[in-house]
UniProtKB/TrEMBL annotation:
<dbReference type="GO" id="GO:0005634">
    <property type="term" value="C:nucleus"/>
</dbReference>
<dbReference type="InterPro" id="IPR005627">
    <property type="entry name" value="CutC-like"/>
</dbReference>
<keyword id="KW-0963">Cytoplasm</keyword>
<comment type="function">
    <text>May play a role in copper homeostasis. Can bind one Cu(1+) per subunit.</text>
</comment>
<dbReference type="InterPro" id="IPR036822">
    <property type="entry name" value="CutC-like_dom_sf"/>
</dbReference>
<keyword id="KW-0479">Metal-binding</keyword>
<keyword id="KW-0539">Nucleus</keyword>
<dbReference type="GO" id="GO:0005507">
    <property type="term" value="F:copper ion binding"/>
</dbReference>
<dbReference type="Pfam" id="PF03932">
    <property type="entry name" value="CutC"/>
</dbReference>
<comment type="subunit">
    <text>Homotetramer.</text>
</comment>
<dbReference type="GO" id="GO:0005737">
    <property type="term" value="C:cytoplasm"/>
</dbReference>
<protein>
    <recommendedName>
        <fullName>Copper homeostasis protein cutC homolog</fullName>
    </recommendedName>
</protein>
<keyword id="KW-0186">Copper</keyword>
<comment type="similarity">
    <text>Belongs to the CutC family.</text>
</comment>
Length: 203
């Protein structure tokens, strides 16, 4: 439903994240079934590309699973997501992803943010288009100037207070570290415009 509505509202390509759960990137057979079903449905409803990632238990790219999922994704372009930041050897992992046919990799340079991982991002971007996570309007210029990548990835979100007037303080709908029920994360148009302006000025 979200994909259908987004496709009606925007003109930019929409890539759909295929991630059956939070946590690690080592998937069970049932989770793989879900991923394949999600890919088919995303394609059916107009996805312009897909985003996923899968690792082996020893921190390498799960080439067997990725190959199977890439086959379901065809002919759409595919990005490997930030599971990349959890690999044992990022340079070997990148070579594997290129050989498999991934067009992009989302990464913070295997560090806590793109700024901290900038030196690795620069090395990776020489081999493949590498947009990355952890971008804000405060660090985008420095990151773009410090690498050869021409794309970037960010959430550009802010918190909005809920419109609920009645609030039950005794009930939490998620884990203790999840977002409060009466605060909503939304895409921030002002942040998106600021980030676009910074990027256009540099690229």
């Amino acid at each position: 439903g979200l994909l259908q509505v987004v496709k009606q509202c925007v003109r930019v390509p929409v890539f759909v994240m295929i991630r059956p759960r939070g946590g690690d990137f080592l998937y069970s057979d049932r989770e793989v079934e879900v991923m394949k079903a999600d890919i088919r449905l995303a394609k059916l409803h107009g996805a312009d590309g897909l985003v996923f990632g899968a690792l082996t238990e020893d921190g390498r790219i799960d080439t067997e699973l990725c190959t199977a999922l890439l086959a379901v994704c065809r002919p759409l372009p595919v990005t490997f997501h930030r599971a990349f930041d959890m690999v044992h050897d990022p340079l070997v992992a990148l070579e594997t992803l290129i050989s498999l046919g991934f067009e992009r990799v989302l990464t913070s340079g295997c560090d806590s943010s793109a700024l901290e991982g900038l030196s690795l991002i620069k090395r990776l971007a020489e081999q493949v288009s590498v947009p990355w996570g952890g971008i804000t309007e405060r660090n985008l210029q420095r990151i773009l100037e410090g690498s050869t990548a021409s794309e970037f990835h960010c959430s550009a979100r802010s918190a909005r207070d809920s419109g609920m007037k009645f609030r039950n303080p005794n009930v939490a709908m998620g884990a203790s570290f999840s977002a409060p029920e009466y605060s909503i994360k939304v895409a921030d148009v002002a942040k998106v415009r600021t980030l676009n302006a910074i990027a256009k000025n540099i690229l």
